[in-house]
Specification:
Blueprint: E1 2-3, H1 21-24, E2 39-46, H2 52-61, E3 66-69, E4 73-79, H3 83-99, E5 110-115, H4 116-122, E6 130-132, E7 136-139, E8 151-154, H5 167-178, E9 186-190, H6 196-204, E10 209-214, H7 217-229, E11 236-240, E12 251-257, H8 260-272, E13 274-286, H9 290-297, E14 302-310, E15 313-320
Parallel strand pairs: 7-8, 9-10, 9-12, 10-11, 12-13
Antiparallel strand pairs: 1-3, 2-4, 2-5, 3-4, 6-7, 13-15, 14-15
């Protein structure tokens, strides 16, 4: 699936009753250290969808400076240290996760070394242009433009979620792209991360005025940088804070790519800011959580109009009913 970056916004750590869905498997890499060791310690840690957040929290608590997802494994990178001691600590944490009743694969944790030069020359290779449907391409700044007939979103991979590689981000981008010709002038992006959703909306709708918020100042800084990369800084109002700062303003589109428990807690506020006839886009959700979300949504004037799926992840699109 590639490398994505860790943001802390809306992340409830040490709460293994759930998982972080789309925004939990987000990690920091090269930008985490100022000086590079001669080699890195690499831990390959298997996980199940239900234990994703717990495993990612474990590796970062033990000092990981970056991770990538590979077929139900987290490949976590650590600064040079005693590999055996690290493996023992990770194994203890793994056993604790199992004791909490969360499923984990039978495969064991493996530890290896990676020379600095292999890492330094190879990590950019994880970020290559990514096509989203027929009309959108997401690329890092160092990749050359090669899609004159498509809208290009330039994202600088840093410590904020949203490089396009994670299934939940792709689902959101697909939803925006499918509505590209009818996007409203205003929208709200809750937990904006890298700003990728707000930027994509603004690129498809040049007269946009998007509001995007996040609890993490680093995420807002990254989103602001990306907005400038894409020349849409004048179309997106970014701020550090919560929905309470918005007053009584409503929006015809709201994007919320967050973890399940945060979506549930924010539903009343999201509905308060969703204009009648407006659309709410929810992701960061597993297919196993679909029924739970439908049950919670049933108490609001929100009609579900579409469910998008990619692997074990879903996106729910809801229409706010009039009145």
């Amino acid at each position: 699936m590639g490398v994505v970056f860790w943001r802390t916004s809306y992340l409830v750590t040490l709460d293994y009753s759930g998982h972080c869905s789309g925004c939990g498997l987000v990690y920091s890499l090269m930008h985490a250290t100022k000086s590079m060791p001669r080699w890195w310690v690499v831990a390959v840690v298997p996980y199940a969808p239900e234990s994703q957040d717990a495993v990612s929290d474990l590796v970062f608590r033990e000092g990981a400076i970056g991770c990538e997802e590979q077929e139900r494994h987290l490949v976590a990178y650590f600064e040079a240290q005693d590999e055996l001691a690290l493996q023992e600590r990770l194994q203890e944490g793994y056993q604790h996760i199992q004791a909490l009743g969360l499923p984990l694969p039978a495969a064991s944790i493996t530890i290896s070394r990676l020379p600095e030069e292999d890492w330094h020359t190879g990590w950019h290779a994880y970020f290559t242009p990514l096509a989203i449907g027929e009309r959108l391409v997401v690329r890092p700044p160092w990749a050359e433009s090669s899609s004159a007939d498509k809208v290009e979103v330039i994202i600088e991979p840093k410590q904020a979620f949203g490089t396009g590689t994670h299934a939940t981000t792709r689902l959101m981008l697909e939803a925006i792209t499918d509505r590209a010709d009818t996007l409203p002038r205003s929208a709200l992006d809750v937990g904006t991360g890298s700003g990728i959703l707000a930027i994509t909306h603004a690129l498809f709708r040049p007269d946009s005025q998007i509001v995007a918020c996040d609890l993490d100042p680093l995420a807002i800084a990254n989103a602001r940088e990306n907005a400038h990369h894409n020349q849409v800084a004048d179309r997106i109002h970014l701020f550090v804070g919560s929905l309470q700062a918005l007053g009584s303003v409503t929006y015809p589109h709201i994007y919320a790519n967050l973890q399940r428990q945060i979506i549930l807690s924010l539903l009343p506020d999201l509905m308060e800011h969703l204009a009648p006839g407006g659309y709410l886009f929810l992701s960061g959700l597993l297919t196993s959580e679909e029924a739970l979300l439908y049950e919670a949504i049933a108490s609001f004037p929100l009609q579900m109009v579409q469910t998008r799926r990619r692997a074990e992840w879903i996106l729910l699109e809801g229409l706010r009913l009039e009145g």
